Amino acid sequence: MYDLVVVGGGAAGLGAARTARHLGASVAMVNEGPPGGDCTFWGCVPSKTLIEQSKARASFDAAMAKVHEVVAETAATESPEVMRQEGIDFYDSHATFQDDHSLKVDGKVLQGKKFVVATGSKPAVPAIDGLAEQPYLTNENIFELSKLPGSLAVLGGGAIGCELAQAFARLGTEVAVFEAKPQLLPNEELEAAEIIQTALEADGVVVKTNTLVKQIAPAPATPADSASQPRLKVSWEAASGATKAAVNATEAAVNATPDTMEFDQILVATGRQPNSQQLGLEEIRVELGANSQIVCGPDLQTSVSNIWAAGDVTGLMGFSHASDMMGRIAANNALRPKVLQRTFKPHKVPYAVFCDPELARVGVDEAHAPAESRVAWLPLTKDDRSRCAGHSQGYVKLIAAPRAITRHKLGGKLIGATIVAPRAGEMIHEPALALAAKILPARIALMPHAYPTYSSAVQKAAAQFFMELEGLTWREPNRQAKA
Asked: What is the DSSP string of 249-276?
């Protein structure tokens, strides 16, 4: 019997298994296919490689060759052989719980004292008329394309949709993004989303927000179709929940152009669905939520006392680095005494959207800042490195709340940051560390930053909590900052 059995081999599963080995536990990992999961094979690694290649204006063939090269290099660091060398017994198989201490694996029973379920997620496919009957792309097969699409419809304006829309547009594809909500990146500040939309449109992407795709159907055949895949017709209408102003804008656009367009390919990027089915979880009374996510507390323990969950399957935070952190916390809590238990705190985990410019955030956004908070905002037009590089679209925003006794002296306490900048994904870690470690904003403002760097914009924003700088100082939160 193993001390810990990890079900799933993605970022969360790898984090859990390696932490368990570090703690001296006997560990088994069960995963269908090689370890690495979505991030290595269909997510972060291939998409960010493609994005970098598109920035360099590489050809499609060269870009995809690089994608496959980097995926192979990454997969080699977490292969079944590497797992076994690290002392982790690896089983390439589907797993089904027989009871709370045993799994059916490849026709035999595998027993464990404790379990971490880290089976990830898959693309959520919307119920659009005709979509199921047509070939479509998701992040799981788009990197298998052997030919650059002439045109691409992207269903969904979240991070995946925006990133791949911009990358394919830069590679030469005609791209349109359809988003039912009033803005791209619906979970982000409107101000940030508008900058990303402007950047996508500058690359030739057609953006249709407040737009509900109603039907996907084969386009009328043409002589050219005999030598290629038939084109697909996308039909849409204004989303029913749109504001009056947004509906008017959408209707104006529809009046100017037809409400149908034809595309060579369709990319579905409308969200994720937890992989919790066909594992036998309900049979052993592991509680599942409305979206089939495994319900767990901040300690990641499920309703069954010796089973923990981590990563996308929990529905808590859909990022690979968050999954890795959850996996490590789950394994720690499964194997160590209560006094050494840890909790997962999503508000302390930074993340980034890798468009150009990038968007990164940690903690609360301005619209959800609590009472008495202060906001420091610095546009990139006032940042010298951005001036040098010719980047004017973007900003650094820091949000500070008062401390219990000292209130806003020394800047209070940092509770959130949003950055839109060419290197936002790198810049966000200074505010993230300050938030997690309770570092005073005064320390950021007083610490010398290399000049000129993008990170010096974080320093200049922090200084606004104490003084007026280039005509800017802190302000109260704008409750209308989000659509």
From this structure: HHHHHHHHS-SEEEESEEEE-S-EEE--
Residue 228: predicted pLDDT: 65
| Rounded-to-integer distance, Cα 284 and Cα 281, Å | 5
CATH class of 2-35+79-122+272-347: alpha beta
Q: Write out the two tokens for 211.
A: 């737009």
The CATH code belonging to domain 357-463 is 3.30.390.30
| Whole-number Cα distances in Å, 483 to 190, 194, 206, 220, 436 | 6, 11, 20, 38, 28
Identity at 184, one-letter amino acid code = L
**What three-state secondary structure class fits 330?**
helix
Cα–Cα distance between 412 and 285 in angstroms, integer?
45
Residue 230 has what pLDDT? 82
d(CA 118, CA 32): 12
Residues 6+ apart with CB under 8 A from 330: 12, 16, 116, 118, 300, 308, 309, 310
Q: At a CB cut-off of 8 Å and minimum separation 6, what does 468 contact? A: none
Q: What is the pLDDT of residue 239?
A: 87
pLDDT tens-digit profile of 93-135?
A: 999 999 999 999 998 999 999 999 999 999 999 999 999 999 9
Query: What is the distance between the alpha carbons of residues 411 and 445, in angstroms, rounded to a whole number?
Result: 9
Cα–chain-centroid distance for residue 356? 15
Among 425, 308, 361, 315, which residue's Cα sits nearest to residue 52?
Answer: 425
Note the pLDDT of residue 478. Answer: 86
Alpha-carbon gap, residue 269 to 198, rounded angstroms: 20
Asked whether this chain's domains 2-35+79-122+272-347 and 142-268 adopt the same fold, the reply is yes
Amino acid at 332: N
Residue spans of the domains in the chain: they are 2-35+79-122+272-347, 142-268, 357-463
Per CATH, is 142-268 categorized as 3.10.20.310? no
Q: Give every residue of the chain whose pLDDT is below 50, as ranges.
A: 243-247, 250-251, 253-256, 483
Rounded CA separation 450/387 (Å) = 16
Query: Tens of pLDDT along 403-431?
Result: 988 999 889 999 999 999 999 999 999 99
Cα four-point dihedral sign 200, 201, 202, 204: positive
Closest alpha carbon to 364 in 378, 377, 350, 352: 350
Strand partners, 175: 152
Task: Please tell me the predicted confidence (pLDDT) of residue 33.
Answer: 94
Structure tokens at 228: 């290629």
* Secondary structure (3-state) at 418: strand
- Please report the pLDDT score of residue 226 as a whole number: 53
